[in-house]
Specification:
- With 704 residues, the protein is α+β, with helices and mostly antiparallel strands.
- The chain has 5 domains: 221 residues, GHMP Kinase, N-terminal domain (Ribosomal Protein S5, domain 2), CATH 3.30.230.70; 75 residues, Orthogonal Bundle (Arc Repressor Mutant, subunit A), CATH 1.10.10; 214 residues, GHMP Kinase, N-terminal domain (Ribosomal Protein S5, domain 2), CATH 3.30.230; 63 residues, Ribosomal Protein S8, Chain: A, domain 1 (2-Layer Sandwich), CATH 3.30.1370; 73 residues, OB fold (Dihydrolipoamide Acetyltransferase, E2P) (Beta Barrel).
- The protein is built from 15 helices and 29 strands.
- An 8-stranded antiparallel sheet has the order 8-7-9-10-21-20-18-19, with helices on both faces. It has a 6-stranded mixed sheet with strand order 1-2-3-4-6-5. Strands 11-12-13-17-16 form a 5-stranded mixed sheet.
- It starts with a strand and ends in a 6-residue tail after the last helix.
């Protein structure tokens, strides 16, 4: 019944398999990609005609995780998957970004890529499979896709690169690199690291590229096995005559407008140029032929052309800076009262404010973790991009993909420098107050400062920067440090790198061109390193080190380690003990399986009271120490006494007094408080006590 075509490729000690022909046969292209027993399915569909009235490529990429893939039921009342999770959105983004530049110019048909996690083995992550499955499905379609692409994950264990590491291996890896490339050149990287240096970063990319070549060849082989001819297609470029006409009409005015330093002033001038030129082009070609969307595409072509010529031919940037020059930097901390930490960071017209909140273990973010990995997250960074940051009026709705993606990038850039054993749950919120290029990297800088202001003991401060690129036929490529929003739009690359003075902690590279030369990769990392040092100088001049004390409004925490066998005594029957402590002291207590107990409170007296209670309930008997005990049992051979909460010991009849005792009741009674001394603690936990020795040591008579 199964009639499929498949191709497998060996990647280290694992095998990746592409398969097609069984599912979704009405799709334009479909394929599965499997690594271990984790499998992602991809189906590509398209419209037969271009969408009218648009000036952009309408590509939609979706990724969904089905709970059946892990043999689980969804939570909630309806027991059905709901809106996409943050992980699903991030996976869709990482799938979209390397694919989009590889579609033919001028192709405006709607394209939808629907990816789904079909099975999950808990060992192999699905994001790279989503990219590979989408590339394979596109290769099996007749869409004008200049692929294939290959994607791998690269880790590093004990100084050695590892291909597609398992979740267990990633726990000790100092690198998490998602590498995507065509057969000849890199296309995208994304991930985090524990201060990896530039040279090692490039080496990791090249290590991953060797596997990418095999993955690309496997997809080409799969298309051939299906009897499909190699792809051929033509790209549709804007009408050269119309571009020339617009250049003649508006070129000079547009250049003057584009090279205006202030963003809002620049935009106002460009609107005026746009309106005037549009009127003249309609006059020249007629309103039916020269629609507004048609004109927008022409205007965009000329705009990009002018900006690129300025860089390549005149060595001129839009705001007059040198190619490696940063915009003016400013930083401030402790802006807001009562919050646990706050900061403001500006780089030119890009401005971000960050606020830190410290919480308890109960504030950790829970994750579904269908594909394995961590199920909770103690450190989070959320990114908000309100319309006023660009001077616009927009409808306020839910989070968009961009906000989620930028927040995730800033989060993984900072997180490696937050101590693993830091007992607080930490939330950073980055509010973008002004945007003109790389607000995600500004979030890294301001987030670091806010954490330091909150007293979080950061190992090292982290800063980030974006490097751009302009290429042109007959010209040497030019790297641009700290790109403006317009330079990002008109250029070829957005190369975001975050890190400490010593190494890289986070990165994300997106291209508009169809591959990046290896020398440019190395050059961009070097340029980012130099810029990062200058930014860190400004940050540390504002706040040289994390504050030694927490905000008075932040919760205090005391961490004690108890014998795991004492956890039951601390909790008590039905949670009686722990409930009593939290209710009477107003504290929050988190207990971990290894015996780590964290006590949280905003009030020092309450914190101390809870600590005393916890210590009493979990204390260990000390040989030679005297305790006040309560008689809990009378026997012929002596009595039992509770000398610590929940801990009893035996006072043998010979240890009740310094004289011969005939009956236990002659010396002690049920419920009576007595002094006892610990004589010994046996291997089985039994405790021997002595009233006689305790009374002698206290200088009191043991007689009744």
């Amino acid at each position: 019944m199964k009639n499929t075509t498949s191709v497998s490729v060996a990647l280290g000690d694992k095998t990746m398999t592409f398969e097609t022909g069984l599912l979704a046969r009405q799709a334009a292209g479909q394929a599965t990609c499997q690594l271990g027993e984790t499998m992602v399915f991809s189906a590509v569909t398209t419209t037969s005609k271009p969408r009218e009235g648009i000036d952009f490529f309408p590509l939609q990429v979706e990724y969904r995780e089905r709970f059946y893939a892990a043999g689980r039921f969804p939570g909630g009342y309806f027991k059905r998957e709901g809106r996409p999770t943050e992980k699903e959105i991030l996976t869709a983004r990482v799938t979209d970004r390397p694919i989009r530049p590889l579609f033919a110019e001028g192709f405006f048909n709607d394209v939808q890529i629907n990816n789904a996690l079909m099975t999950a083995d808990g060992e192999n992550e699905s994001d790279i499979l989503s990219i590979n499955a989408a590339s394979a499905a596109l290769m099996l379609s007749e869409l004008p896709f200049l692929g294939p692409l290959g994607a791998v994950r690269v880790g590093r264990l004990n100084g050695q690169f590892v291909l597609n590491p398992s979740h267990e291996q990633m726990k000790t890896s100092d690198l998490d690199l998602v590498y995507v490339g065509r057969r000849d050149l890199p296309m995208m990287i994304e991930g985090s690291a524990l201060e990896i240096n530039n040279a090692d970063m490039v080496a990791a990319m090249k290590f991953g590229h060797a596997a990418v070549v095999k993955i690309c060849d496997a997809q080409t082989e799969l298309r051939a096995k299906m009897g499909l001819a190699p792809k051929t297609f033509a790209e549709t470029l804007p009408d050269a005559g119309q571009v020339a006409k617009l250049r003649e009409i508006a070129g000079k005015d547009l250049e003057e407008a584009l090279f205006t330093v202030k963003k809002l002033e620049r935009q106002e001038k460009m609107r005026n140029v746009f309106d005037a030129a549009f009127a003249k082009m309609k006059e020249a070609y007629g309103e039916e032929l020269m629609t507004e969307n048609k004109f927008k595409m022409l205007f965009d072509v000329v705009e990009i052309e002018i900006v690129r010529k300025g860089v390549l031919e005149k060595g001129k940037r839009m705001d007059g800076r040198a190619m490696d020059q940063l915009r003016p930097l400013q930083a401030d901390v402790a802006l807001l009262p009562r919050v646990h930490g706050s900061a403001l960071f500006s780089r030119g017209e890009t401005q971000a404010m960050a606020v830190v909140t410290l919480g308890t273990g109960q504030d950790e973010q829970e994750m579904d973790g269908l594909t394995g990995g961590e199920t909770t997250k103690r450190f989070t960074l959320h990114y908000n991009f309100p319309p006023y940051s660009t001077g616009e009026v927009k409808r306020l709705g839910g989070l968009n993909r961009r906000e989620i993606g930028h927040g995730a990038l800033a989060e993984r850039s900072i997180e490696p420098m937050v101590p693993k054993d830091y007992p607080y749950a930490v939330r950073v919120v980055s509010e973008i107050m002004g945007s003109n290029g790389s607000s995600s990297m500004a979030s890294v800088c301001v987030g670091t400062l806010a954490l330091m202001d909150a007293g979080v003991p950061m190992k090292k401060p982290v800063a980030g920067i974006s490097i751009g690129l302009v290429t042109g036929e007959g010209h040497k490529p030019v790297l641009l440090t700290d790109i403006l929003g317009a330079e990002d739009h008109c250029g070829d690359m957005d190369f975001k790198v975050a890190g400490t003075r010593d190494g890289i902690t986070g990165f994300q590279v997106d291209l508009k061109i169809r591959g990046l030369d290896w020398d440019l990769v190395a050059g961009a990392f070097d340029r980012a390193h130099a810029a990062r040092q200058k930014i860190l100088d400004t940050m540390l001049a504002t706040l040289p080190a994390p504050r030694p004390e927490l905000s008075p409004y932040a919760p205090r925490i005391v961490v004690v380690n108890i014998n795991p066998e004492k956890i039951g005594a601390l909790i008590g029957p039905g949670g009686k003990n722990i409930r009593r402590i939290t209710e009477t002291t107003g504290t929050q207590i988190d207990i971990e399986d290894d015996g780590k107990v964290s006590i949280f409170s905003n009030n020092k007296e309450n914190l101390d009271a809870a600590l005393r209670e916890v210590s009493a309930l979990t204390a260990e008997a000390e040989v030679g120490k005297i305790y006040r005990a309560t008689v809990t049992g009378i026997k012929d051979f002596g009595c039992f006494a509770e000398f610590l909460p929940g801990q009893e010991g035996l006072v043998h009849i010979s240890e009740l007094a310094d004289f011969r005792v005939n009956r236990t009741e002659d010396v002690v009674k049920m419920g009576e408080e007595i002094w006892v001394k610990v004589l010994s603690v046996e291997d089985n936990g039994k405790v021997r006590l002595s009233r006689k020795a305790a009374m002698a040591e206290k200088g009191e008579s043991s007689r009744k």
